[in-house]
Amino acid sequence: MAILYHHPFCPHSRFIRLSIAEMGIEADLIEEKVWERREAFLALNPAGTTPVLVEEQIASVPGSRIIAEWLDETRGLALNDRRLLPENPSARVEVRRLVAWFTEKFGAEVSEPLVHEKIYKRFMPGDVGGGPPDPAVFRAAKSNIRYHLKYIGYLIRQRKWLAGEALSYADLAAAAHLSCVDYLGDVPWDEDAVARDWYARVKSRPSFRTLFEDRVLGMAPSPVYADLDF
Amino acid sequence: MAILYHHPFCPHSRFIRLSIAEMGIEADLIEEKVWERREAFLALNPAGTTPVLVEEQIASVPGSRIIAEWLDETRGLALNDRRLLPENPSARVEVRRLVAWFTEKFGAEVSEPLVHEKIYKRFMPGDVGGGPPDPAVFRAAKSNIRYHLKYIGYLIRQRKWLAGEALSYADLAAAAHLSCVDYLGDVPWDEDAVARDWYARVKSRPSFRTLFEDRVLGMAPSPVYADLDF
């Protein structure tokens, strides 16, 4: 069976958890605290980041975008119309553009700083950067999220799903990153009703269910987190 | 003919310039000053970053990693043993891992801050962040580069090229990022002789020649920049 090294609130890991659930791939989830810089984990991914996928055929596939390509190359054709990276090269560019948008841009501007400040720092020892959250950091992230929601709304006004007429990695990446912020109650859903409706659609998929069970010790999820009619 | 929107000292653009030269693809180069946030350019890439490739078959391919995938999907098979992304899925993971390493990690820790502080800021108006370089930023980058050179040396002690026995995107991405830092004279080549020898091999390829002609107005390149026997 596949093994996925992840953190429950790492948005990149959540993107892959959703993707493998959509593909019907079972994996053992092993929680990795990246700040511990475990030697055996660094051997799997010298960059020291989650997620990392291990399978019988390969010792290590590190990083969400690389795992997504690997899954498509090893399973894509068999998925037929449920494939998450379309067959047409131009359509693949649009999916990859939006995956990059949410993993790099939304990640750097919103989800990574919020998760780092509000979740990771609670569990990190002081000597590697743990401690109370920095309000300046999360104020910026909470302001940045508004234009990203508007961008999702803009795209969904033209298309059924983020990258076109079919569900793709783009939707799963975006929803994975948003779901971490949603746990914290920091998504201003009133900002764009079309974006909210799209998220409700993704959130109601069976692949999303396992995310609802994740909990941060001592920090309850926002009331809307697992609510399908938020 | 293809059009590549780039900046001469954008390391991501250089990665694609090297790649298309290796593939024998001709392209018109159009210099883009991303800080101007030109509307016509933002329409090609809403993220506002270089490089962007435009071809007859597609309106826009934004971002070096996405362009590299596009080029492989549209030309890869015809290149046979000169293909820059190998055919085997496991080997593709290793190439993509190292491309991600150099574009994301080396980019964020070394080449982007150095190019931004020492080159871009000379030409950016003050109201969008132009001005004198911040020594704290480039001191950190000049310290970070050392472990990256050691990592290149470590890999090349085991393999002919960075990702295996054949030249790949990994070599071109790494060399593209290093070449920007080399212009500034900030690569401590004495740090690792094996890394230096690998760079000399990549640098002597015909694809590298056009990079040697790039100049920053009012800033001469380091003496070793275009020297094949540095």
Description of the molecule:
The structure is a homodimer of 230-residue chains. With 230 residues, the first copy, chain A, is α+β, with helices and mostly antiparallel strands. Chain A has 2 domains: 2-82, Glutaredoxin (3-Layer(aba) Sandwich); 89-208, Glutathione S-transferase Yfyf (Class Pi), Chain A, domain 2, CATH 1.20.1050. Chain A is 53% helix and 8% strand. Chain A is built from 8 helices and 4 strands; from the N terminus they run E-H-E-H-E-E-H-H-H-H-H-H.
CATH class of the largest domain in chain A reads: Mainly Alpha
The whole-angstrom Rg of chain A is 17 Å
Average pLDDT score of chain A:
96
Largest interface, Cβ cutoff 8 Å: A-B, 24 and 24 residues
Strand order of the largest sheet of chain A: 2-1-3-4
Number of helices of chain A: 8
Q: Can you name the CATH architecture of the largest domain in chain A?
A: Up-down Bundle
CATH-assigned fold name of the largest domain in chain A: Glutathione S-transferase Yfyf (Class Pi), Chain A, domain 2
Quaternary state of this entry equals: homodimer
Total strand segments of chain A: 4
Termini separation of chain A comes to 36 Å
- Poorly predicted runs of 5 or more residues of chain A: none
* Share of residues in helices of chain A: 40-55%
What's the main sheet of chain A like?
A: 4 strands, mixed
Residues in β-strands, percent of chain A: 5-15%
Could you write a compact summary of the structure shown?
Chain A is built from 8 helices and 4 strands, in the order βαβαββαααααα. By secondary structure, the first copy, chain A, is an alpha+beta fold. Chain A folds into 2 domains: 2-82, 3-Layer(aba) Sandwich (Glutaredoxin), CATH 3.40.30.10; 89-208, Up-down Bundle (Glutathione S-transferase Yfyf (Class Pi), Chain A, domain 2).
